[in-house]
Write a structure and sequence with these properties.
Largest sheet: 2 strands, antiparallel
Shape: elongated
Mean pLDDT: 88
Low-confidence stretches: none
Number of domains: 1
Distance between the termini: 59 Å
Helix content: 40-55%
Number of strands: 2
Order of helices and strands: EEHHHH
Strand order of the largest sheet: 1-2
């Protein structure tokens, strides 16, 4: 019997797979929470065809999510938040 590091109703990841995804999607702040959410969607709402292809669709979903987090949290060499053009983003106080 396989031992899983993440075991949902549909999504099941071995420790190697989970660690590889954690490394690949390093911009996602809480990978496990997103996996639980995705697993709940697969279990409750997804059609059988989507459930059957959970691995590929989840990889695609996480890649898009990771890219969005990377864009939203882009920082310069001093750790200051910057926009797409590299300009610093400052918040003015009220």
């Amino acid at each position: 019997m396989k031992k899983y590091k993440f075991e949902g109703k549909v999504i099941k990841l071995t420790e190697d797979d989970y660690n590889r995804w954690e490394k690949a999607y390093k911009n996602i702040p809480n990978l496990q929470a997103h996996l639980f959410s995705r697993d709940a969607w697969f279990h409750k709402e997804a059609e059988y065809a989507h459930k059957k292809r959970w691995y590929l669709s989840t990889v695609s979903y996480l890649a898009k999510l990771d890219a969005q987090y990377a864009k939203d949290n882009k920082r310069d060499e001093m750790g200051r938040k910057v926009d797409d053009s590299g300009k610093k983003i400052f918040r003015t106080l009220p």
